[in-house]
Each structure stands twice: as C-alpha cells, then as structure tokens.
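User: I'm putting together notes for a lab meeting next week and I want to include a structural view of one of the chains we've been expressing. I don't have a solved structure, so I'd like a prediction I can at least talk through. The sequence is below, exactly as it appears in our construct file.
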Amino acid sequence: MPKERFSEKAIPRFDDAPSAVLVTGDVEFFVEEAATKAREILGGTDAEVLRFDDDAPPEAISDALLNRSLFSPRRIVELDVSRLLGTETPGRLLSQALEAWERGGPAGRREAFKNARALLSALDVPPGGNPDETAEAVGKRLRKKDEAELLAEILRDMPDAKSGGDAILKSALRGLVARGENDGTVALLTAIAPPAGVDLVREITDKGLVLEASVGDAPEEALRRLAATRAKEREVVIEPAAITRLLTLTDARPLQFSSELDKLLEWAGKGGRIRAADIEANVEDEASEDIYGLYDAIGRRDAGDALARLERLLSGREVRAGDRELSTDEMWPIRFFGMLSSEIRRMLLIRSRLEESGQGSFDPSMSYQAFQARVLPRLLAPAVPFGRSPFESERGGAHPFALFSAARRSSRFSAAELARALARAADVDAALKNSWSPLETLSAYVGDLIAGK
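Assistant: Thanks for the context. Below is the predicted structure for the 453-residue chain, given as structure tokens.
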C-alpha cells in the first residue's frame, strides 16, 4: 500500500487491517494523537492492547508480535520504532535527551533515556559500553564535545539494554509484516521523522499501511491544542496571547513551534505562567514576511504597520507571497519595488474604472461573492479601443480574488493620489539602481503614498 495522509477514513477496521500499521510524522504530539485514534478505530471495544515502552525486554515484544493472544481473537501491539528506523537528525536527539534530563522527574528521565537510546542507534553505537567513552565519542561525532559530560551522566543511569535487542525486534517485525493480512495480531507502530529509504519502512509500505500525521488543514488550531495540552501536562499556564505570538514568530511551523514551546515550558517551570512578553523575550523572530501584508497595510493607510512590514521585507528574512516563497537575492529591493509599483498600477486602474462606473458600484464591505456578481464583470469588460480588459495579460486574466483585494485597498485612495505615486516610480527605480539605501528610499516612497503626497 502507498503512504497516506492520516485521517480517520484511512484507518481500516481490525478484520480488514494489514499486519502492520505505521504512523509517522515530524512532531511527536501529533504522531501520538494519531496513533491513539488509530487504536480506537482498529481495536473497537474487544481487542487486547499491549503497549510496550523503550524499557520492555525485546523477547517479550517479539513474543507478542509473533504469537496470537490467548484471551482475545484480536491483539494490537503498540510500539515506538523510531530507534529501529533511525533518524537523519541525531543532533536533535541529543538536545532532546539533555533537555529532558535537566527537566528531571520520572517523565523527564524516561524521555531522556528514550532519546539517548535512539541517538546511539542512529549513530550505530552499541549500548552498554563505558558511559564516559561512549559520550565522548558521540560528542566528537556531533561536534558537541561540551555536552558529552551530561550525556555520560544519562548513560550511567540508563537501564542496560541487552545486546542484540534491536536485531530481535527487527526480525520479529519483518516476520509479522511478511504475513500481509493479519491473523489476529496487528502491530501499531509509531516513528518520529524516520529517514527516507529505510528497508523496514519500505517493507511496511509494500505490505502494510503507512500513515503520515501532520497538523492537517487547520495548523494554527492544531498547534494551539498542542500548546494547551503540553502546558497542562507541565502544570504551566500559557496565555492565549502568548500562543498567538509564538505562532507568529515561528511562522506556525509545527517542528519549530513545538521546539520553542518545550523550551518555554522548561523556562516557566511547574506552576509558572507564560505571557506574550515572555515570548518576545525568549523566542528569536524567524518568521517569514508575506508581501500581501504590506499591501493590506498600505490599503488601510496605516503608516506604522506598513513601514514596519517594509523593514521586515528588507531584513534578509524569508519572504513569501501567500504560500509562494520569493527569492531575496541581492537584486531583491529592485524586484520588490517592481512588484509594489505593479500593485499600485492595478489599484489605480481599478480605482479609475470604478469611478467611471459611478457611486454605488463598489462597497469595501461587500462580500467576495457580491463583488464577483456586481463588480467583476465591469472590470473584465473589454476597454475601447484595445478589445480586452486592462487587467488581462498575455497569459490571460487576473485572478478574481486578487482584483477583489486590490479594489478594497484602492477604496481609501483617490485616483489622483495613486497616479502621483505611480508617476514617481521611475525616479525611485533609478535611485535603487544607483545604490541609494533601499530601506530609506522605499520608506520615503511608501510614506508619501500613504500621506497622499
């Protein structure tokens, strides 16, 4: 079976399920959440569920995988196989192990041991050796020698893992997967960010089912749920405004959001509180900037927001137009101004066409549907003597929603104001090409546009 995006519909009932179902993803919270839902659908109410953690004896897990239950016709064996599959980011495992260890407590120790075992497996370092020598070797390979001492402390306390345990588990899993259809036992496996091309993953993909868990179509809602759940587990209060700010500074990227959240929860401590100001003080602003945000600020004639966004657009951070990433090479200020002047030209054309149509043709508060029905046909009507709309290019017409957005932005300007701004565009373009300061030059231009000069 091919890999599928996780959804409840993608999970078969037990009798129709293959012998192995693997749930993968970049963020542990969403992988665990998906696996819980998969267990509920697979098992129903009468399945025997055996859940094994990292400390479980390999022989016990192997026995559960390869033998049918004595108590139920249906058995689900839950197991995290991240360690068996490896990872492309061992440095991240080391950081997670150290952070969990410093957090302390039974949960922190278990997480530290889990990540330390996965780290050793990813680097193909056998467990059970001298902790100091093993930690020193890992530190050298990852170029993190300063962290070797703390890693050695974890390894000294970590329960011994029997030699050959991973080989036993891989052999048992391969035997189960080879069956294809289940004969009463289904392995429900999880793995965090397994590298591409791993043999065992390919085997499960061929004969089992691989589901990829993510934030889905509502990433901000999912990440807010993650923050609320993790904060409750740590007995920390995180204010809604703080979550909003963290979403902004991390661009709502799940892995980055989760990582920064863990650091903040550790910083706050049990019984602590995380406010929006704490996000500003503790999280580096690495968010990208959407060029449409500047266009909207100009449309509101909000000079403060527009100039702040302009500075971000020229700061060297990632820039996008909606979901599309834009290149910000050394010619970026000139290319950006070309995009800005094109938007002003479009606003001028729309404003002029709407003024020709008289009052009542466009209301900035109208819905997109109303705009499509009442205004869009006028904008797309052919202009004499050209025989086509001024909004059409050689590749066809403009997107209706782009025209709707530009119409709303233009509504606070007069055609004369936009015409003056467009008339100055050639001088601004020349200034940029003559190595004038891009930020100062463009700030003056945008400021004059908003002021109506």
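A couple of points you could mention at the meeting. The chain has three domains: 1-214, 219-282, 289-451. The radius of gyration is 29 Å.

User: Perfect, that's what I needed.
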